Amino acid sequence: MKTQADKLKELVKTETTKSKNIHFIAITSGKGGVGKTTITANLGYALHKLGFKVALFDADIGLANLDVILKVKTDKNIYNVLKNECSLKDILVEIEKDFVLIPGKSGDEIIDFADEVALSKFFSEFDILEDYDFFIIDTGAGIDKRVQLFLEASDDIVVVTVPEPAAITDAYAMVKLISEKKDKAFMVLNEVNSEKEALNIFSKINNVARQNLKNEFRLQMIGFLKKDRLITNSSINRELFVKKDPYSASAEQIFNIAKKLAKISERKVLEPENRGISRFFKKIFSGF
After folding, report:
1. Is pLDDT above 50 for 252?
2. Which of 101, 120, 174, 213 could be cross-linked to 30 through a Cys-Cys bond (beta carbons 3.0 to 4.6 Å apart)?
3. Has residue 196 been placed in a domain?
């Protein structure tokens, strides 16, 4: 007898989708408290200011706080859409034109509410976002199975860490996990004192990765953020530091990361694989 999960997996395989090649980026970390959500929000805003359509998805289970940083109120999330309490359009929060937040919640309990009809409707509603350029996922910290599902379904993964022994150890553990499913990952060093310190820490992590992980796996430092009172104050005041002071050194560092990701995205546009939002969530659900 087929279980509910089996039926959902069959639906995932049979559903059709139409979309352009949207770029999915998961921002993750080995441990909490390293600035992952702050970087996600500001990076999304920077990409938006570069002229891209950007959707942010809060998948940080239990600690969802993108809405706090973006200073918006969210009463419902994707969980409510799956329970047929509202539509996807009802939960979208427009921060600015073509820059939106999708409040999210995930977990095995979704299976209890997402039957074939609800899930099919859920997939079809993503048509309203299929012309977006970037879908950025703020994942939970650590190697929880639900975090792994989002990492595996994403095109690219950015691991955030800070120059603390525990954070660096956990960041490597995350990189090791990613290497089992992907051939590459990016890293952002946060709260460093200098570019030299960032490069030094990354070099140590990368050397261990080269010695112990599969040969084809590549780890690349895509940027860094120096310690800055602007970032601290912006977090306290629930502001985007890139928006508050777009000409600051910290904003420049975020924009540098955004430009690198934009170049990577340009190369992927030429690839034939369909990477629509519906397809992304089908991958997520097939993993439950």
Report:
1. yes
2. 174
3. yes
